Structures are given as structure tokens and as C-alpha cells.
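Follow-up to my post from last week.
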Amino acid sequence: MTIGIVGIGLMGGSFAKALKKYKLASKILGYDHNKEHQKTALELNLVDEICDLNTLKQCDMIVLCIPVDGIIAFSKELVEISKNTTIVDFGSTKELILKNIPTQIRENFVAAHPMTGTEKFGPSAAIDGLYEDKIVVLCDVCDNSSYHLEKVTNIFKSIGMRIIQMDAKEHDIHACYMSHLPHAVSYALAKTVMSHENPNAIITLAAGGFRDMSRIAKSSPNMWCDIFRQNRTNLLDALNIYESKLAMLKEMLQNEDYDGIHKYMAKANTLHDILK
Amino acid sequence: MTIGIVGIGLMGGSFAKALKKYKLASKILGYDHNKEHQKTALELNLVDEICDLNTLKQCDMIVLCIPVDGIIAFSKELVEISKNTTIVDFGSTKELILKNIPTQIRENFVAAHPMTGTEKFGPSAAIDGLYEDKIVVLCDVCDNSSYHLEKVTNIFKSIGMRIIQMDAKEHDIHACYMSHLPHAVSYALAKTVMSHENPNAIITLAAGGFRDMSRIAKSSPNMWCDIFRQNRTNLLDALNIYESKLAMLKEMLQNEDYDGIHKYMAKANTLHDILK
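User reply:
Got it. Predicted complex:
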């Protein structure tokens, strides 16, 4: 099976590595509008060849690892692919993508969200094992033909992923709380520190807590702007709830209600009874 | 040198491990009001003996690894120690502690904040290497006699720490941005998710980003309530700034100002040019 990867960055490059490790493709082609990324992907041996759009369309499977707005735009290029060509996207949002892809390829188009990543990007960020033992959410698979769904499912299982199926609408809400809201929170924390008159002096004291809390604020603005746009309504809802929880904590601190703060923290602690 | 550790939890227990590793104490005594912790500390061989208050006072060095309000309260018990007994506290706040310790022991009392830790607590949380290659802030050392300051400095250097000296007021502001605000932000994120009608379903999708962002929301409410109380004013200031940065992001999202969001994210990214 020839597999074409569109966008050879952290996700696409790491996926190529996984495909090679488990010998799941006879040939891996890379498609990327960024010339530097093309060069690096070849140098790092992530893909066998860089291809043009016509060659890409001949692949047995096309994997879209580009920002979510790009996925919608690029799907229009794929309207005339063969009925046997599977398309899978790795976007962090799902509802708007599935609403906007051409109906001609809806059966072929498997909407996937691998729940993994790092804050790094570009082909040099590709790592071994990024997908192993991680969850991938497949959305609205009732609209896929079983041929394409099985092809994608087999690949994800073969690289060690656990599959969850979900409604796209539900996915976008869950992904908002587990990923998009945390990114907003982390960006705002980084922005707060950077707005200080002397951030360097403060950052000297950074330890594990701050490092963890600010890590994802290093993520790509191009990618995250798109995600915020596509999941705008859910993110605004989540931000409203988050703001109210933060305001509650601040109010208790203002009122010196330390019993209340203790209870609040103890309730937050219970998250970790679920999150193993 | 006999060293007495008050509070044999994550910080105290890990410090005892470091003292043993580098053979810096002839005997390590543990003092803890929690009987279970006493037992575990002995079983784990963190300390050589559990001692009473009178024996503790005979130590050459007393290390206070208890919540910050406890440090102030306990310091009153140490008023009559020998001029040669060094006291060092590991509290996360400094200004209020230094304002409230008895003047009779001010020379002996070295105020330290090791910038390290995990979200775990109790003696079983003690780990090897917690202090190695980490920063410890010493505050208002001009009020210490050189004898006590050198004793503490030598110990910290011997276990591989890097020492920064700072004014207590300045420390409390910096520690607020690097540690106390991130804890508030993480507790609020955990509280947001736990307030959802079905947190279990959402948390199934948790990946690295959410795990990192919620890790410190597992921290001890006893310890963190005290810290929030002692650094209340700075934390309220920081929360106000943080809220305004978050509100700015939300407003841009409401107004679909994606150029603005892109710039905001790019500015947040610059934190990582400083944070290596």
C-alpha cells in the first residue's frame, strides 16, 4: 500500500516513522508546500519521496496532517480520487471539517483525532513512538464505507493505538476541555509572565510546575489559531466556565475564606481519582 | 553534625535522602506530629530516629519542611535554642515568615525556598535527586550571621543546588508568578472539568497537554491553602493580570479577531526563548 502524507511535521513525520517501524506501507510519499520541510523530511528519511498533487492522488491512502482550516481547503483537491483511495485527517476539531468536505469523498474520508502530540512542530519534531498506546478518536464513522473504515482502523491498531468512536459534536466538546481550553489557559499564563516588566528575572525561578503549565504555550500559532476558529463556540463556553471557577477562587481569597479554598482544592484533587 | 527534620514529607524526606547520599550528617532525626508519617519515615529509612521536641532542639541544624503557617507557629518553640543551632525553612513564601519569627533566633534562621517539588506528599513521596541541579532562593540573608549562612550554603551546594539570594518581598512576587499563580490556574482547570456533568467521559481523552496542565492540581490543599494565605496580596495582583490576559483572548475570539489571536500566541511563544 502506498501512503501519502500531506504535511510532514510533528504528526505526519511521526506517523511516517510508525508506518516504517511496522512495515505498513510499500512506499511513503510526502506532500508539503514548505520547501524546507520537504528537504528535512527527506534528509531525516521520514518519507521515501516528495511528490506532487497528481502522484499523491494515486496513493492508496492519503493522510492529512495539516492545520484544520487547511484540511477543509485541501479536501476540495481530492474530489476526483478513486473510490478505493482512503483519506484520513488528523485534525483536532471534527464537526466543521465533516460539514465541509465534499460529499463525493465522504465515504472515503475517515475523521480521526489522535490524542497525542508535543508542543514542537516541523519535520525535525517527528519522534518514534508518538502514537503508541495512545487514543485515537474516530468521528461519525457511520458515514464511512466499511472498506475505508477497516483500512484506517487496521493501521491505527497496528501502530499500537486504542480506538474510540464518537459523534463529531461530542468530540469537539471533549477535545475542547482536554486540549483547546488547556492551550488557551497556558497561552494566557505565558502572556501574563511576558507582560511583567522583567520576565527574565522571574523565569530564573521556574521549576517543574511552571514548566509544565507553560509548555503547550510554545505550540504553533498557525495550527492553534485554526483550531480556536473551528471550535470557537465550544471554546467560548469552556472559557466562560473556566473564568467563573477562577473568579470563585479569587473571591474566596479576597474574602479570606480559607475553608472555602480548602474545599475547592480538595474538589480539584478528585480529578486525579479519575485521571490515572 | 546532627540534623533534625521537622515534617518528613516530600521535601523533608527527599532532603534526608540527599543528606544521606552525600554523607552530610552524622545523624538525621525526624520530627513529625503525624504518627503514620513517623512510622513510614522509619520504614523507608529516611531518618535514623524519630525524636521529641527536646531532642530536636539539641540538633546542630533544624530544617523546617512543613506548611508555611506551621513554620511561623513552630519557630516560637525554638526561641531558646543554642546560638550555634542553625534553623532553615523550606517554605514557599518568605516575607510573612521573616516578619513573624522571634527576633531571638533571627540570626540563626536562614529562609530558603528550594525551587523543586512534585504534586505528591507524605514520606512515601520522598525521592532521590529532588534537589540536584535545582535552584534554592535564600532571602534577606543580611539578617543571618555568617556562621549560619555558611553552614546552610555549604549543605545546599553539597547536594548540588544553585543558590540565588533575593529580597523576601521580591521573592514572594517572583514565586507567585512561577508557582502560586500556576497552581491557582491548574486548580481552576481541574475544577472546570470536574464541574462537567460527565467528567469521566471527557477525561478518557486526556493526553499530555491536559495531564501537564492539571498535574499540580493534585497538590495538598493543607499546604497550598497556607501559601495562598501568606502570599494573598501578590496572588490577587497576579490573578487580576492573568484574568485580564484571558479576557483579552476571549474577546478576540468573540470578535473573530484571528490576526490578534495569532499575535497573542506568538507573543506567548517568546517565553520559551527565555525558559530553556
